[in-house]
Specification:
Elements lengths: L1 H24 L1 E6 L7 H16 L4 E6 L7 H10 L4 E4 L23 H8 L2 H10 L4 E16 L14 E4 L3 H9 L3 E4 L5 H6 L5 E5 H6 L8 E17 H5 L3 H35 L3 E4 L2 H10 L1 H11 L1 H16 L2
Parallel strand pairs: 1-2, 1-3, 5-6, 5-7, 8-9
Antiparallel strand pairs: 3-8, 4-7, 4-8
Helix pairs in contact: 2-10, 4-13
Length: about 325
């Protein structure tokens, strides 16, 4: 009887030790991004956190930080590279000086619809970009949507090329965006997005360009009167993880994190697609006039910026751009 009791005690202690070891083995991490909690990206990252715990049996426990509470996109990317922040989702534009191919997403009027976009996000060219950024200290998990960029302003409706002339427009701080809007006749002003609302409020600038859901989530309806559905650029975002953190995970946990990322990717796309349709009505209710651009007028705008693509193709990589456009053509041909 004593031996039996002793055996039970030994087994219990062993199981306790295993449980303690498992708890100690759990790793934690921060997921940072710039969007507010009302944005689909925040919902997708909350789901990513939940699914990561589920698919790793709680071995990997994450916490999402919304609204740029961990810093700007550039600062968060640097932190992920350094290993002081584990995950980041957002633009990879800060890498453009080291990985020039990242700028391909800034070229105007590449895509006709989200079907083409999503095929490219899951395609060979986007995977190649992840391979290119690996030496910077980050590992790419997935690309997902942020939406087609559209133009807003506080001056007047923009429905044709001539309406853009003279508008003081905040643009992303990258050479392609600056050249695109200068070519269209705007006074292009590079500015961090965190400064845009205040600049619009005090009339330091007239307008900006961003995806519709992004605009609404960041309250552009309070400082803008007109939106033009130009769909001139599609801005994707990437979920990346610190290579230092990633390399420390077991193969099973890596698979769990990747599975969670793949499901969060689909959720974000679904929420954005639904949100784009819904938010136009919300802008109207808020007193913002939303204008379509007639195909003939849009064609003139597209023709005007063709020299921008020609100018930047050698810098981005002509072969890479050809591969990129070939993927788009393949999707179109499959219709």
């Amino acid at each position: 009887m004593k031996k039996s009791m002793l055996k039970k005690i030994v087994v219990a202690l062993a199981l306790g030790a295993l449980a303690t070891g498992s708890a100690l083995a759990a790793v934690t991490g921060k997921v940072g991004h710039a969007m507010p909690e009302s944005h689909p990206q925040a919902a997708a990252m909350n789901k990513f956190v939940e699914l990561t715990a589920k698919y790793t049996n709680n071995n990997v426990q994450l916490k999402a930080f919304h609204s740029a509470t961990l810093g700007s996109d550039e600062k968060m990317l640097q932190a992920v590279q350094a290993g002081t922040q584990e995950f980041y989702i957002g633009t990879l534009a800060p890498f453009s000086t080291r990985v020039k191919e990242v700028q391909v997403w800034d070229l105007p009027f590449m895509f006709a619809n989200t079907k083409e976009v999503y095929a490219l996000l899951d395609g060979a060219s986007s995977k190649k970009i992840f391979t290119m950024i690996e030496p910077t200290g980050v590992h790419g998990l997935m690309w997902t949507g942020m939406g087609f960029r559209n133009l807003s302003n506080s001056k007047h409706p923009v429905t044709k090329l001539e309406d853009i002339a003279g508008l003081k427009i905040r643009v992303m701080a990258n050479p392609v965006a600056l050249e695109t809007w200068k070519t269209l006749g705007a006074n292009a002003v590079p500015m961090a997005f965190s400064e845009v609302f205040t600049a619009l409020e005090i009339k330091a600038i007239d307008g900006q360009e961003n995806p519709l859901v992004h605009m609404y989530a960041n309250k552009m309806q309070e400082v803008q009167k007109y939106i033009s559905l130009t769909n001139h650029v599609y801005t994707p975002v990437a979920l990346v993880v610190s290579k230092k953190f990633w390399d420390g995970l077991s193969d099973a946990d890596k698979q769990g994190v990747q599975k969670a990322a793949d499901e969060a990717k689909i959720l974000q796309r679904q929420l954005l697609d639904a949100g784009d349709k819904e938010v136009i009505g919300k802008f109207g209710a808020a007193g913002v006039k939303v204008d379509a651009v007639a195909p003939a007028d849009l064609a003139k705008i597209q023709d005007k910026v063709k020299p921008v693509v020609t100018k930047f193709a050698p810098q981005i990589g002509e072969d890479f751009i050809k591969e990129f456009y070939a993927e788009i053509d393949k999707v179109r041909a499959a219709k």
